[in-house]
Design goal:
Blueprint: H1 3-13, E1 18-22, H2 29-36, E2 44-51, E3 56-62, H3 69-76, E4 80-82, H4 88-91, E5 111-114, E6 122-126, E7 132-137, H5 138-145, E8 148-150
Parallel strand pairs: 3-5, 5-8
Antiparallel strand pairs: 1-7, 2-3, 2-4, 6-7
Length: 155
């Protein structure tokens, strides 16, 4: 089963309304926003961090923002660095590299979501490929993934 099919099944089983959007190949969250003609504020990008405790954490934030490591440490209690891309394949074997979905809970990984995303009624994110995205209500994403919502970006 492809990751897109796995996510769709997960959402269907959870009785979540969502929209699948097929688009031209993009490799960045800002690129997804461009091809979908939406604000980068609505695109949830996934950033993978490796903590000083050896664990991984998924940070979900608006496409146009960067992770503030001091804010992450305040939220999680752990210092972290960006995880090397070489780790992605083993952690997300069913996703194209760099197209991970924000459902870290499906990969036994804690999820931290920036508080700015919680202000949006809907978010859009990669569905495990560089050509498919899912659009859904933030409240449904929050209910399913149970992220810690906190300030994770500067400004």
């Amino acid at each position: 089963m492809t990751v897109a099919a796995r996510i769709k099944q997960y959402l269907d089983d959870s009785k979540i309304k969502y929209e699948v959007r097929v688009h031209d190949k993009t490799f960045t969250a800002q690129g997804l926003a461009r091809v979908e003609h939406i604000s980068g504020k609505e695109v949830a990008k996934v950033v993978l961090l490796k903590t000083d405790k050896g664990a991984y954490a998924m940070v979900v934030l608006p496409a146009h923002k960067l992770v503030d490591m001091a804010h992450f440490k305040a939220a999680s209690g752990a210092a972290a660095t960006l995880a090397p891309e070489s780790d992605f394949q083993s952690l997300f074997p069913d996703c194209e590299i760099g197209a991970m979905t924000p459902f870290g809970n499906l990969y036994n990984m804690p999820v931290y979501a920036d508080e700015a995303l919680a202000k949006d009624e809907e978010i859009e994110f990669n569905a495990g490929t560089h050509t498919e995205a899912i659009r859904m209500k933030f409240a449904d994403f929050e209910r399913l993934s149970r992220p810690k919502i906190c300030k994770l970006t500067a400004g």
